Amino acid sequence: MADTSNKDTWVDNTLKITLSRVARFTTYLAAVAALVAGYQKLVSEYNFENWQAILIAGIPICLTVFTDTYPAWRRERRKKRVVDYAVHGSIPPPGYFRLVPYSEKDIDDFNRADGHHEQVLNWITETNQSILYLSGESGTGKSSLLKAYVIPKLQELDPAFRIVEIRGYHDPVQALIKRLIELKHIPEKKGKENDPRELLEQASAMSSTGRILLVFDQFEEFLILHDHEGRLEFENLLVSLVESPIDNVTILLVFRSDYLPELNHVHMPALEQGKNWFQVGLFTLRASQEFLKKSGLEISEELIYSIAREAEAIEGIRGLIRPITLNMYGVVLERYLGRLPKSMEPGAMLRGYLEEIINNKNIKEESGLILKQMISDAGTKKPVSLLELEAATGLKHNFLEGFMIRLASTGVVRRIDRVAGIWEISHDFIAQLLYKILFKWKRPKLHKTTFWIGPIALLIWFISVFTLLPIYRDSAHYQALNNLQLYGFETRVFEDGISAKLNSELDSIALLRALEELSDVHNLRSLIFSKPFDNVNFNGLASLKEIKHLELSTNYFHMDVLRDLRKLEYLRVNRATIEGLHNLSGLKSLVHLDLQGASIEDIDVLSGLNDLKHLNLGSTQIRNIDVLSNLNHLEFLNLNFTNIEDVNALSNLNNLDHLNLNGTAVDDITSLHGLQSLTTLLIMDTQIVDLSALSSLSTLRRIFAYDTNIENYGDLDTLSVRIRN
């Protein structure tokens, strides 16, 4: 049943991991798709700035990183620290205070104040009973008494006892057989099933000079971890030894006195105190105080007394304290060098110590998950292998080993079988405390839900960007149209978008608010300010990314606000002191540019505006027009009342239809002889006297030359050219 359960758990964990990885990959893929699709939609349809669109479109990836990638990286880094314990960590030897039992190495230092260790030794050596019971409350030192004193002393006797130690958390019969074979008390039968009684009889025969003592430590595990069928074979062996004892073979059953009633369910000899049963007692209050004083720590008399009284209260028995309770307090005292932090009260020391250990930042997410597997339903310790833990928790073997070594260094757990990798909580007393702490333990909710924050946020993001944002935008659009009417705007709807025209004057504040409303108008294509403005701020134009047509007249204008209006095709800014003209260089879509009366001198920025067809630079301060030589698509060019003196740069503008040179210092137009598309020429108030170079222009229809003294008309008289002078 256990193997099947572990297999099912392993399958479940594998399935969870697979689904998690598929979900994670899908989330990342969706986040990248959201970045691309969202960016395009926010820029092209909602007129967001590039940085704004990237910021909003990147939200899903950021959420995925901060809710999954970053936490996963931190978990892996934390787990690596734990794994390092498996590689580099070691279990330090226990000191004076210990939570693990004493061992045979401590025989020279082991000495119980109540003398029970000597009494148990004498009881075992003098008894003629085949089955003995050694009981005591959890933490009274039964295992320590045996391992550190009784068993080593029995092995030193002459003739020496042969000791076979077994535990009951698995199959006790098979454990007995295995131990007998390992200790070479009997030969192993090849290919045959070994009978435990027969093997004991053989062992007895081979040990004619000494007795065999089978020590069944923590016998309560056998009573509580096995059902009737699981206990039957071992019960039959015990009954047979009672009914028909084997010479020189004695079985010692060691168990907690809490489980005395459980013996009624097993066919065993009745307990008789002093004959086949010995009860290990608790320390007296005086003995407890002496035990603390001998630790070598500088513990104040007041603290010793306080701890002894608190321990007495925990036990619930006046004047008696279990050794494990004192050792638990001692471990805490050692940690704080014999003193307690002001924040820790003696009554909360034990629970606080364990909580501090299991809530260590490197293991707190897994500690409850692991330790729960090591505590039985009755609140007692339960030996478990790393393989079993791996199947039950889904955690990796090296992490589990590092976890155990980490806790073993604090005395909370101990390894009982290095080869099989079996561990257990160091004492039932600690198991009971942990049971209370972990009773309502649940894996941190954030650990369970953090991965799903990303997908959920991604879904919300998609709904917001592709559903709610359009609804909000449409609502803001119609509200803005209504508000613009209040400011005096006339709006009209065309196939390619909306046109807004202001026929009234607005003050600076009203204009600023109107521009804010315009930013909410969806698909605004044309904006015309019919009235001139003085000393106003047009910065709000920067948000009108979709606009194609803009007309305004003002005394000052900074082109920086137009820098990102990449779709602008028609621009008229009249009579303005213009700054930042270089910002026009990025407006590659411009076809019509009207800067009539602007205070500009340098037009080099126009060199890259190759799509220009209509250019009005009249009444500006420009002198050099060489940059216009590359604008081959120009059809209309107004240079009237500028400071230019020659027009040689216009010689290759074959698409030029209309040219205005009124009021300029130009006196020679010979270079215009190749403009085969020219139909209209204005040269009023100039110094031009010779028109003969234009005789070859078959398309020329009108020449306006008022206040110009023409001397040579060439062949223009024979052409259908109207010359007004």
Sheet with most strands: 12 strands, mixed
Query: Number of DSSP strands?
Result: 24
Distance from N terminus to C terminus (CA atoms, Å) equals 116 Å
Strand percentage, roughly? Answer: 5-15%
Q: Quickly count the helices.
A: 19
Question: How much helicity do the residues have?
Answer: 40-55%
Would you write up a description of this structure?
By secondary structure, this protein is α/β, with parallel strands linked by helices. 40% of the residues lie in helices and 14% in strands. It has 19 helices and 24 strands. It has a twelve-stranded mixed sheet with strand order 11-12-13-14-16-18-19-20-21-22-23-24. Helix 1 (2-44) runs antiparallel to helix 2 and helix 6 packs parallel to helix 7. It is rod-shaped. The termini are far apart. Residues 1-6 have low confidence and may be disordered.
Layout of helices and strands:
Layout: H1 2-44, H2 50-57, H3 59-88, H4 116-126, E1 131-136, H5 142-156, E2 162-166, H6 172-182, H7 196-206, E3 212-216, H8 220-225, H9 228-243, E4 249-256, E5 277-280, E6 283-284, H10 285-293, H11 301-315, E7 320-321, H12 323-335, H13 349-358, H14 364-371, E8 384-385, H15 386-393, H16 397-408, E9 413-417, E10 422-425, H17 428-438, H18 445-487, E11 489-494, E12 497-502, H19 508-518, E13 524-529, E14 549-553, E15 556-558, E16 570-574, E17 577-579, E18 592-594, E19 614-616, E20 636-638, E21 658-660, E22 680-682, E23 702-704, E24 722-724
Parallel strand pairs: 1-4, 1-5, 2-3, 3-4, 12-13, 13-14, 14-16, 15-17, 16-18, 18-19, 19-20, 20-21, 21-22, 22-23, 23-24
Antiparallel strand pairs: 6-7, 8-10, 9-10, 11-12
